[in-house]
User: Fold these one by one.
Assistant:
Number 1:
Amino acid sequence: MKKLILIGIVALVVFMILKALLVIVSKITEKAFKVSDKKRDRFEFPLSVAIQLLFILIWLMSSEGVANKFGLNNLEFYISFCMIGIFCVFWCYFSWDMEHIFVKPCISKKRNRMIKKISIYASIFIFVIIQGYFQTLHAMDPESEINMMFSVTNYSIVVAIIALDRIMNQIVAYIEERKKENVCICCPLASQNKIDQDKI
């Protein structure tokens, strides 16, 4: 447990240092090029993706560093990798202010949540398929075909189907959201009438 806490402390310290540098560079760039709020909002999501990938990389490097120095058992490695998944889920639902180093997270925009979930579930789907393939190769036994089938089912098919279902769910939700926005833009009067009727 102490090793996992050490991994978390190292990862967070390095991450906050890099975020501080990023905030400083961002403010200097905005002042130099006079970036408007509208343009800054366009880069908010790509920056969020880049920062999340950076955090995952830092976490993996911290885990490797602690493992090389103190050693990690299989359970500690498992928990460390699970923490990456937990952080990714938090990333889907929350966004962090890029103008300040220390700030409370706020709920991210609905469209951003959808895109984040699609990317996370797609990554899980691809990872599970690849992992299931290699796991099957290692578990393959010519004398026990049933073991190979169980391996394929346990490591790929069931989880992959769940992940694919979540991908489709978020894609459909995103398309429906876009349709609603287009209707509101094209027919503002109709949407206002609908709101008035709902109030009645």
Number 2:
Amino acid sequence: MKDGTGKNALFSCISRNEMGSVCCSYAGHHTNCREYCQAIFRTDSSPGPSQIKAVENYCASISPQLIHCVNNYTQSYPMRNPTDSLYCCDRAEDHACQNACKRILMSKKTEMEIVDGLIEGCKTQPLPQDPLWQCFLESSQSVHPGVTLHPPPSTGLDGAKLHCCSKANTSTCRELCTKLYSMSWGNTQSWQEFDRFCEYNPVEVSMLTCLADVREPCQLGCRNLTYCTNFNNRPTELFRSCNAQSDQGAMNDMKLWEKGSIKMPFINIPVLDIKKCQPEMWKAVACSLQIKPCHRKSRGSIICKSDCVEILKKCGDQNKFPEDHTAESICELLSPTDDLENCIPLDTYLRPSTLGNIIEEVTHPCNPNPCPANELCEVNRKGCPSGDPCLPYSCVQGCKLGEASDFIVRQGTLIQVPSSAGEVGCYKICSCGQSGLLENCMEMHCIDLQKSCIVGGKRKSHGTSFNIDCNICSCFAGNLVCSTRLCLSEHSSEDDRRTFTGLPCNCADQFVPVCGQNGRTYPSACIARCVGLQDHQFEFGSCISKDPCNPNPCPKNQRCIPKPQVCLTTFDKFGCSQHECLPRQLTCDQVRDPVCDTHHMEHSSLCALYQRGQSLLYKGPCQVQLFG
């Protein structure tokens, strides 16, 4: 960002990262170009000539846009005077930190030296809720001309993570989570308490897994790691954080552990010399906790209990264990389960993948993400006009769920977000507008998420699904909702078994389809009645066999176009039209969204198809017909 005054505050980390995300996204899948580009924005001071030259060498032929973007940044890189930020030192809560801060700003020149000095001098990590670091970040933003600091949006700071807070099992963790992600960052104490009481609490696995899914969604495959090499060549496995930063993080963790202690938020674990005691197993632990293999119920940072006990019994310095603690009791805190759906088995990663010699591999166009930070990557399933080159992905505009959120929803979609005030069970529905912000929010009725269902003498929490006999059931705010199958039991008579079909309401297994007014085809009138439709709300025959334009319901100056849809709302109240009326003279825009007509001819858009008087068969490019 440009600043003609030459008096930028110390840290422009946030804006620099955002600019780097935009510029380097133009590198696409070209790894070398992307890495040299990212190095420009990781620098602690003005990028050096060799860094700029490397970007030009590796990226000039790939993306002129990237070169232009980087040049704009490097040419406008401001000269920094660290003493301009001396006033921030007074925000430090500790007197020793205040003195260290002033001494460092007066003596150090580069950002990296200053940041490292502050971390060492103040004995704290740079957290955005710490008043000292908050001052640096705020002053960094405030000096940029033309930049307006907006209040937090109605979604709170992070609407996606706020969703997870309702999954907390304890009121303490629910309140802490809400405080951290609602309208303002929690204070340092709140973050420390969340780390201590919630981050490793086994009863909070549902909330923690949700937070992990938002923060680091599972991605297919892992490759190009230089330290955690046993994780490479696993194209069909899922990982949360397979990247160079986590690879380096695992190496750094090992170096720290080699000093004889593993520091956790609530306990320090003394260990023997891990360079000699089970080094490969310790490496698998460090890599697993950083790369985070995905499991259905696990947030990806818990190794299995048996592995934990084994390695601490062999390599833990048991004479120095905290009082009243053993290997088993420590692992009960850190890794309380051996259920493979909830933990990472180290044995898998003690050896390289069996897929060593790669000839072909499974890839995903959106991993790694090639799009700018404010856009959503979607796989291009529409294809391209014949002969035209095209990318296997497209970047579409979206909205973030709060100013501190990285979670993006597609433009035009409706999204449910928690109330920004943090009331549990209170939500609003918003739309993602063209401005890139969530707008037109409407409050919904609050739901009592604390209400549970009692089933067979057992308590089932809100939102859980389970089976009762052969029916699938769920508990919603204290109400039990189940499918309607009749189930056989050991007490069922021979006559019951003979007439049993397994269908809802034990309807006969005969296919005589009916079409409901909601646009859905049901296998029989019995099943339609079983799901709640009245006789006047369906007619015989499948919905696809019906012509909603015969007789023509549209005015004379308009044409009727079939628009089949299935409605989830109360269709008897809101209707569920299966057609639309369009002007006879259509003007089509140039947006390509191919469709296929009933003669298997492809058109550039639905509008173009209707313009030519054809009928829609399906959306998307025409598929090759196979004849047997």
